[in-house]
Amino acid sequence: MASVQRQHIEHIFQLGEGLDAPQLPAQATIRRSWLRCLNEYQLDPTQPRPARVVPQQTLIEHRESVDELLHVARAGVEQLYGQIAQLGYVLLLTDHRGITVEFRGNPNQDQQLRKAGLYLGADWDERFAGTCAVGTCLHDRQAIICHRQEHFDATHISLTCTAAPIADPQGNVMAVLDISALQSPTQHESQNFSLSLVTLYARMIEDAYFLQRYRDCLMVRLDTSREFVHVNGRGLIAIEENGQVIAANAVGRELISTHQQRWPPWSAQHAPMLSELFECEIADVLSINSATNDQLRAFRARASNAIYFISLLEPRRPRIAPLGKPASSLPTALERLGADDPAIRKVQKLAERLRNEASVNVLISGETGTGKEVVARALHDSGNRANGPFIAVNCAAIPEALIESELFGYEPGAFTGGRAKGMRGLIPQAHGGTLFLDEIGDMPLALQTRLLRVLAEREVMPLGANKPEKVDIRVITATHRHIDTMIAQGEFREDLYYRLNGAQLRLPPLRERADKLYVIRQVFSDVVSERGGSSAPRLRADAISALLAYAWPGNIRQLKNALAFALATAESDEVTVYDLPEQCLSQRITRTPAITATESEATDRHLVTRLQQHHWNISAVARELGVSRPTVYRQMQRQGIVPPNKA
Fold first, then answer.
1. Is the CB of residue 400 less than 8 Å from the CB of residue 512?
2. pTM score > 0.90 for this model?
3. What is the mean predicted confidence (pLDDT) over 285-295?
4. Which regions form coiled coils (predicted)?
5. CATH match for 332-506 among 3.30.70.100, 3.90.330.10, 3.90.1170.20, 3.40.50.300
6. Between 161 and which of 67, 133, 332, 366 could a Cys-Cys bridge form, CB atoms 3.0 to 4.6 Å apart?
């Protein structure tokens, strides 16, 4: 090992032992990362690791997960690489796990770059690669230079790397933009311009993604300089037509944060009105394009008193399809499955090709509550069996002792306790249509053998019958379990699995979907329709923001239950954040100390006073206290507080 590498390893151990020396990195960020590598990740600096490049199939999966970002980012990637290529730099764009999903470099250095890990598919997660620009940027969520000996791994000390995070509209890091070189000057300051350049392009990509994501919403673009608003306005805020904020880019979020610091009662789930951020009326903003010559207006920010020049970006109009050509090639049932999400688009396209292929059995996989039955029904409704029956069977919900008779049916007198006239099974009932077997992983092994025979011979033998009954069915199955593991453990027949898995549709969890806003509005519309009634309830922007921020461990099923709860408890036709179940709110709301079970009698009187001041309007009290309406109701019940009109 070269002496310079041995010295580098010695410096790492010196820091780990609490020693200090002039040769150690000056940046506190790098020092903290070195200590993480030693103590938390247990990386051995004396054992350098070769670059890890993920297999092609794994790379494809990582790229598909950021498909929308890649589509937006490519123009910025090309521009940036055009500026740095002649200086010997390469460009990497990684996902939030540190896997390189986009790469630009000199083909003449291909072998050297691959060996150094500066290549497509390379893994730069700090837990594996040690201190590096990408991995440490992901950990600290900030732009960073990792120059030569600042790297942890001794094989990286000739590299210089500069990275900046790319955040989604909620402020979560979804990617990292990095420029690196195999060789560079020794001075750390030589990379300062690289840091500025990478940070600039990361913000440009971030804003382009924001504009794409909220292209169907009203938006305001803002800047403190009038001359730059139209061409390079730094702030972007998406709003509802009433002025309620939906989302904002980094500059917009900083402006909102400044406002919240001055008015502490606000929470992350309380999306402000634009008129609360600026001294303006929403009508002033909506009339910008028609009432001003340069389509700009100046407004003062309430929190800082700074003047901002604002332009209005109106939603793009739907493109009119040519006469005789449908706007979408997808059948309606499949189109309703989702909007602009890469994983859902993949499901829609594959489902469109499979909808009339009755000979191909389809397995739908995904977490519980992701809408597997909805996809199965969409396949049925969009295909040539739409006029036939759709029979759905939840294999986990039927007792094991009854599932055989439920599926296959039985003849009169087949067993004690059965119906006198016998019963036609669910499989025969699906004749001419679709049989959907949900939670197929919970089907008993003995029954799996009988189902395999049905699929192979296309006939059913009811219990107690003398001859089989022919069936013409299309079989769609679904599971949230890992069937491969079950096969290895002897819990599921391998031959049945391959018979069922003619094609597989994988549904993403709701928390990962890029079209979460579409799903929320679609499910809300469905719940409203199921409730009936003449009124048309509205989902307010603060409720939408809370729903977008929640992780949804129960996926779409949990979302539907939450919206049904909100509609049932809302006091008006407007559903607000305070009508949602408490688990959908942030900790900042649910942990508020305004009302707790240990409050004193004085606090009890305080609640009564608040209720009287707001004329017993529970929603108004909840908003003032920063809690949900159900919390106020519970505390009223605990304290024995009864509204005057119910006394």
1. no
2. no
3. 85
4. none
5. 3.40.50.300
6. 133
